[in-house]
Amino acid sequence: MSRPGELAAARPRLAVAAAPSPAAFAQWLAELAFGGAGWPELLAAVAERTGAACRLVAETGELLAASDGRGGPRRDAVPDDVRRALAAGRAGGAGSPAAVPVPVRCADGWTGRAVAVGAGPRRLGALLLAEPVSAGQLALAVAATTALLIEAVRHESPPPAVRDAATVLRVLRDGLGESPASTVGGAGPVRAGEAALLRAGEAELLRAAAAHGWRLDQPHAVAGMAYTGEQPRRWASALSWLDRPMLAEGRRAWTLLHGDVEREVTRLRVRLDQIVGAGQVRVVAGALVTGPARTAASFRDADRLLRLLLRAPDERPELPFGQAGLAQVLLAVPDERLRWFVHRHLGPIAHRDDLLRTLDCWLATGGSRQAVSERLHLHRNSVGYRVGLIKRLLGVDPLDPQTVAVLRTALAARELLAASEAG
Known about the structure:
Blueprint: H1 22-34, H2 39-50, E1 54-58, E2 63-66, H3 79-91, E3 103-105, E4 111-119, E5 122-130, H4 135-154, H5 160-174, H6 192-200, H7 202-210, E6 221-227, H8 232-241, E7 247-249, E8 252-257, H9 261-276, E9 281-285, H10 292-311, E10 318-320, H11 327-330, H12 335-346, H13 353-364, H14 369-376, H15 380-394, H16 401-422
Parallel strand pairs: 9-10
Antiparallel strand pairs: 1-2, 1-5, 3-4, 4-5, 6-8, 6-9, 7-8
Helix pairs in contact: 1-4, 2-4, 5-6, 8-9, 10-16, 12-16, 13-14, 13-15, 14-15
């Protein structure tokens, strides 16, 4: 843990006005935390911004850090005061101050107003801001809780339940009765815990999954998440914040979803975006399945949809199975049959990316030369030349209703194959 001022030279500048918004302050503090700042430095920054001394205490009242850098049991908070303040804060929502001011006393006579520091099942304690406290100061204190939690996560080891959840997901991905080596994404050798679950069979797997809130006997889908940014440390911290167990593998992660899958996909993406920055996360979901024997199929769907999404980073940030269009059908078709179909209908132009892009835009715009010209930044005459060449090479009219359906399917199949082969 860093000492106050230890990282001063590396501290990012708060590029806002003298009175930053709570959101801007939260982002700035998060940058400090991800850069290695400890609780003392973070609290010093809060004190500087709010003009009030502050302390961070555990739920038990133990002093974790103070803005002046001093510690010791003589500065611990009264446990009953902390419990009352946290209970009032939770009643108002996570990361909220109490609806009615709840003062917290410390052993040295110091008194502060409490803001609960926690997210989902993770509870650190309370941030105390020296009384008297204005609404503006309190809003900045609430904004500081995210950075304080980031520092807390850094010092934690994954709880056994999280490790066990990863084992359950690996086994589900391998599939009951399948060889553990045949995993999505080419995962490594089977681990001892996975082998034990595989040997135990479906009943034990159902029980193991239920311990993490997953009802495999009910409809569920595999969700896949990918990070496209350049700060893997931030990504790892973001995953630890999600209120669900998962399997993390570098820049990708997997979990199970129940209920309204499309809404849950959006919820995951929004939550991750808030931590790592907008536009750096892609989230997909495989098909809804029931029973542990079918989960591997949902895993395969999610894996291929995630690869598909990553090939077109500017298209959309999420792709649940229910919105996958032609891919919903094509995912169930063997690759060998897809390759035959693509060769049969796109063979003469299969290696001409320029013609394939033109054909895709031509079909998407209903044959509008102007629209294709704008999308591909081509002259209208160049569009006409390419479309004419496509007609001659394929021997079909790209706007014939029956031909349109075949060509759209062939293009979608080609993209799915390319995504799968990209690894």
